[in-house]
Design goal:
This protein is of the alpha+beta class and 93 residues long. Helix content is 27%, strand content 42%.
Amino acid sequence: MEKGRVHLIISGYVQGVFYRASTRDMALRLGLKGWVRNLYNGNVEALFEGPVDKLRDAVKWCHEGPPGARVTEIDEKWDDYSGEFSDFEVRYN
């Protein structure tokens, strides 16, 4: 099973709709590690690590997000797995 890492900047109506909490719940269901946080410009930033097939599932979910979210764009950057995370968390600025 190949592992990887993907960093996302999610744009659109993604704050105030439980996007971070829903992302955390989805990541935990998929067994992914990393974090998610709001950015000051209204976007959401997320970093996931784990099996590549599960990362693809997470990216697909992020394009829709939770009910009430309207995702307009995702900047997606793939990288090598680092194994630096022990869980998935919501980060606060």
